[in-house]
Amino acid sequence: MFDNLSERLERSFKILKGEGRITEINISETVKDIRKALLEADVNYKTAKQFTDSVKEKAIGQNVMGAIRPGQLLVKITHDELAALMGGQTAEINLKGQPAVVLMSGLQGSGKTTFSAKLANYLKQKKQKKVMLVACDVYRPAAIEQIRVLGEQIGVDVFDEPTEPNPVSKAQHAVEKARVYGYDVVIVDTAGRLAIDEQMMQEIAAIKEAIHPQETLFVVDAMTGQDAVNTAKEFNDRLDFDGVVLTKLDGDARGGAALSIRSVVEKPIKFIGTGEKMEAIDQFHPARMADRILGMGDVVSLVERAQEQYDEEEARRIAKKIAKNKFDFNDFRSQLEQIKKMGNMKDLMGMIPGMDKALKGVEISDDAFKPIEAIINSMTPAERANPQLINGSRKNRIAKGAGLTIVEVNRFLKQFDQTSKMMHKVQTMQRSGKMFRR
Predict the structure, then answer these.
(1) For 147-171, what is the mean pLDDT?
(2) Predicted local confidence at residue 215, as pLDDT
(3) Is the peptide bond before 99 cis (omega within 30 degrees of 0)?
(4) Which of 26, 79, 124, 114 is nearest to 298 (CA)?
(5) How far is the C-alpha of 9 from the C-alpha of 6, rounded, in Å?
């Protein structure tokens, strides 16, 4: 999302000349260029000016020590100011009620219903909560069916009273039932509305008054840029919500909403949506987002995602097989499944420092592993367990079964063989201690 902004900021930092100190003279042009970059990213003008004034104030007079260049020091100052602009600290969701009630609000088409299901899945999987979804969009039958289908997909109960046309009563009944049956969290999905629709705004205000939610979240499409910030302000004036959810951050948005919304409505961004899958939801971390904006990647989030999918027992089993040089296609397929669960491939690659620039304009499909899976699935159980069995005639049969050419099958088998040998060699060196000798 921040590709263009990242490039512009990088060019801005290169403008800064001179050594020893950052002065009013040598920083003025750089700060002016940073402000232009923010405005082009659709950041609110007042926010952009306050931000660059703060950066300039903190930078002027700073000593540049050792091998650090003025531009590098300014990157550090800009990073800290970006993190502060987006809230500074990570804001937690309030789940203290019994049950905790989360009210979802947002515009039509903002991705609110889908995000409600993502949040339910997140709380179920990562917080071990018993969650109930409530279908309170009585105006759009497709919304009720959508949330029912999503609930089944993630294994979360959905509350709906088809005979109850009043969303306020429906929400109240859902909370009462959740209390009786021991649910930990109730997520109330409401109808998408326009901020100018007075009747609908009164309705969601009435729902909030009736169910007293611990958390009211405003869901906004990051693709709408500065309009998202203006709408958030209007909703906040009416609802006094607790936090913002930015959806569709995997899209080609300029990033202005993420940078402006916190300073304009003075409410934290709590979650971001990063793709279509139910797992494509992340808690919002201002400092990590600042890292990504400045092209530093987000290694912490990458490691956290890997740890979430890490199966210690499976890792030990595979380590033993690697040590014995017995790593096979079943093991390889198992590792692919772990990687796929981590999320969108381009998003994952973008978390590696420097990769955002390398991946600009490159499409990385989530189907990238499909040819490999097709090859492995076209093997017999004996072939998957014993790679050495695969000869010329078997390769031909596997290629036909996978719908690929013999050349593609040979390429994969060669890569697999090289990878297996490398993993065995590395583990052997680790066991002997050679990797740590000088």
Answers:
(1) 89
(2) 92
(3) yes
(4) 79
(5) 5
Domain containing 35 — which CATH number? 1.20.120.140
Alpha helices in 342-405 (DSSP H): 345-350, 355-358, 370-377, 381-385, 392-402
The letter for the amino acid at 7 is E
The confidence band for 435, taking pLDDT boundaries of 50, 70 and 90, is: very low
* CATH number of the CATH domain containing 356: 1.10.260.30
Q: Does 210 share its domain with 274?
A: yes
Q: Do 427 and 356 belong to one domain?
A: yes
The better pLDDT of the pair 335, 377 is held by 377
- Report helix, strand or coil for 328: coil
> In the predicted model, is pLDDT for residue 290 greater than 60?
yes
**Residue 156's domain spans which residues?**
100-285
For residues 241 and 216, the answer to whether their CB atoms sit within 8 Å is: yes
What per-residue confidence (pLDDT) applies to 19?
Answer: 54
Helix (H) or strand (E) holding 229: helix 226-239
Distance of CA 164 to the CA centre of its chain: 36
**Conformation bin of residue 405: beta by default, left when phi > 0, alpha when psi is -120 to 50:** beta
Q: Report pLDDT for 313.
A: 72
pLDDT, mean over the chain = 79
Q: Indicate whether 228 and 334 sit together in one domain.
A: no
151 part of a folded domain: yes
